[in-house]
Amino acid sequence: MKKRVLSLLLALVLAILLLPAVSVFAADYGLYICGTQVTDANCKDILGDGVFSFDPKTNTLTVAGDCEFNGTSTQNIIQTGYTNNALDALTIYVAKDSFLKSERTAFYFRNVNVTITGPGRLTVHLNEDSSSIWLLGATSLTIKDADLTIDDGWWAIHGASDDGEKSVKIINSNVYLKSSSEDAHAIGEVGSITLTDSVLLVPSDGQIKDGGIFQADGVTFAPEVRIVPANPFEDVFNDDYYSDPVIWAVTHNPQITNGTGPKTFSPTAPCTRGQVVAFLWRANGCPEPKSLENPFKDVKASDYYFKAVLWAKENDITTGTSATTFSPNAPCTRAHVVTFLWRAEGKPDPAPTDSPFMDVHKDAYYAAAVRWAVSHDPQITNGTGQYTFSPEGTCTRGQIVTFLYRAMAE
């Protein structure tokens, strides 16, 4: 009897050892595709049909074909954040034109930064009134270099009413959003929507107008919508501190500057006094001077900065370099720029703190302006070093539009 029991136990052990590895021992990425948990055992072909694959090294989910899924109410075509071990970031790469069809919410994202990108066109279709893309918690959705169509669904992109901050960014993409109900939204309950060099189409009347996102009946639910044009300059990069200020300056109405060429801004080139006053005048809306009487012999009526100089003189922004000269072609120093800005703002009292800069004397004509610039919210400048402001340093084109942007863009 004992021998028989031992034989049975041995057979059982051998059988267990010969069984294939089960998912309980596989890595869990907190990602589900059509109700199937993605693990290291199935990530190369999640559903076995070649449509979905996942690279855990880059957190990239590749979509390469069509899929129709009719799951339960808690299952979605793509889902992450439903469990505690969810991804922090997920890239959905559309390798070729793909059509995804679902009975209910197609994409469920919670507390994750999601990017949809790729050369293929992605079309999402829902069979019932539900949200095509549902954002929960602190979730951002970026659609970049992509072609996305959501051709049905109650809300095309829907932010849940919870405590997390939600945002949608559409960059260099074509996005077509259609809601199935006149009472629904194309994009709903997200904190901000940013469009950069993109086309966003919403066919229902009234859903996008006047820079806001609206319900079909014209009632706004008020996310901030920011339209960002493409950067035309080859010498201005997205991670440059002056990138946003440059785009603001060239798209400002009236235009503050249009660059030094079709594809160049020359951010490190020095700014002259004439240029700086012209920039400041345009940023203030090109106000007409009260008088065309000109005290400066080196400023002509035909100069592009003529009215700007007269306006600045009338408003005590500058008194010139002498009673009869303005020196428009002289390099403009950092001290001059912050002083011009401070005076244009009405000489507000700076914060009652000492200047941290050893090269700014307390009795210098620009001392109060420097303290104001440093204490301004947002800070206009923090100097050129911990203890230096470099007041006599020439202000560059990148610096002046940045100073203007921080002082006036808000």
Q: What gyration radius follows from the Cα positions, in whole Å? A: 30 Å
Oligomer: single chain
- Number-wise, the strands total 23
Strand content: 15-25%
**Main beta-sheet strand count, sense and barrel state:** 8 strands, mixed
Description of the molecule:
Residues 15-25 and 203-224 have low confidence and may be disordered. Helix 2 (243-251) crosses helix 7 (397-408) and helix 5 (334-344) packs across helix 6. The protein has helices at residues 2-18, 243-251, 273-283, 306-314, 334-344, 367-375, 397-408; strands at 28-33, 36-39, 52-55, 60-63, 67-69, 78-80, 89-94, 98-102, 107-110, 113-117, 121-126, 131-136, 139-144, 147-150, 155-159, 166-171, 174-177, 187-188, 192-196, 199-201, 208-209, 212-213, 224-228. It folds into 2 domains: 24-228; 243-408, no CATH class. It has 410 residues and is α/β, with parallel strands linked by helices. It is elongated and about 105 Å long. The strands form 4 sheets. Strands 3-4-7-10-13-16-19-23 form an 8-stranded mixed beta sheet, with no helix packed on it. Strands 2-1-6-9-12-15-18 form a 7-stranded mixed beta sheet, with no helix packed on it. Strand 3 (52-55) and strand 4 (60-63) form a beta hairpin.
Summarize the structure.
The chain is α/β, with parallel strands linked by helices and 410 residues long. Helices cover 19% and strands 24% of the residues. It is elongated, with a radius of gyration of 30 Å.
Label this structure with key terms.
410 residues; single chain; alpha/beta; 2 domains
